[in-house]
Write a structure and sequence with these properties.
It comes from Nostocoides jenkinsii Ben 74. GO terms for molecular function: catalytic activity; molybdenum ion binding; pyridoxal phosphate binding. This is MOSC domain-containing protein. By secondary structure, the protein is mainly beta. The chain has a single domain, classed as M1 Pyruvate Kinase, Domain 3 (Beta Barrel). It contains three helices and 21 strands. β18 and β19 form a beta hairpin. The protein is globular and about 50 Å long.
């Protein structure tokens, strides 16, 4: 049996991971996931690829903290916690790695707070206003996402991570201790499956929700950034390049598109097809 072992939401794109026992799913992915984002003066997304202090920001919403009565709460070491009001200004054009969509800037207080934490005077916090249509090569008309890099939901398996850790040990002679957090999946599955079995899935049912598999996930340098220490090293790209490299990229996990709405919970059966 394969089951859902972890659900992760990122209220603000490229900030701290929030593990939750259950989540609602809508057409844009897990409700509350990556619906906020930090952008630069040109409206382009700012991520921990270039501004690693984003990883120190913890965003909470009522999707991650039951009973929270504000749209977004932000905290970071050495900074006072701030409650972010519902944005009320006009929508602006923003881009996620060059792909355009529209978002609403947060108020000045929230913007000032983010600028202080990130250490940049040109950044702004925004909330999604209009979803971004997905690449029609792998999606259907009407499929969309909020601020995800590619597709609404990402999935990885414990079996695949364990295999990467074994490969790392073979090279270094030391115990591979790469955490799943390096890959920032929304869904982690465990149980009776082989490493990278998920590569061949076409659909997957989690609890009562069915997802289509869009494609695999090509991995970038952000996986080499340790979210705890904010230091970088060669793993896991070095190991993936030895064992999981094709089409000029390294691969780990899969991208999903919801076929319907519903709810999922840790422990749900996972049925691939």
């Amino acid at each position: 049996m394969i089951s859902l072992s972890s659900i992760r939401i990122h209220p603000v794109k490229s900030t701290a991971i929030r593990s939750v026992p259950g989540a609602a799913v809508d057409s844009l992915g897990l409700v509350g996931d990556r619906r906020w984002m930090v952008v630069d003066a040109d409206g382009e997304c700012v991520t921990a690829r270039t501004d690693r202090r984003l990883f120190t920001i913890v965003g909470e919403t009522h999707h991650t903290v039951a009973g929270l009565r504000v749209p977004l709460r932000l905290s970071a070491p050495d900074h006072e916690t701030i409650d972010v009001a519902e944005p009320a200004s006009d929508a602006i054009r923003v881009t996620v790695f060059g792909r355009a969509m529209r978002a609403i800037p947060a108020d000045d207080a929230a913007g000032d707070w983010v600028r202080a934490v990130v250490g940049r005077p040109d950044v702004t916090l925004v909330r999604v206003a209009e979803p971004r249509p997905l690449n029609p090569t792998y999606a259907r008309a009407g499929d969309a996402t909020a601020f995800a890099d590619g597709y609404p939901v990402t999935l990885a398996s414990e079996a695949s991570l364990a295999q990467v850790q074994r490969w790392m040990t073979e090279v270094s002679g030391e115990s591979g201790n790469l955490p799943m957090d390096r890959f920032r999946p929304n869904l982690v599955v465990g149980g009776e499956l082989d490493p990278f079995e998920e590569d061949a899935w076409g659909r997957v049912r989690v609890g009562t929700v069915t997802f289509r598999v869009a494609k695999g996930i090509d991995r970038c340098a952000m996986t080499m950034l340790d979210p705890a220490t904010l230091t970088t090293g060669p793993e896991p790209i070095r190991t993936l390049s030895r064992h999981r490299k094709w089409d000029g990229a390294t691969w780990f996990g899969i991208q999903l598109i919801p076929d319907d709405a519903g709810s999922i919970a840790v422990g749900d059966h996972v049925i691939p097809s």
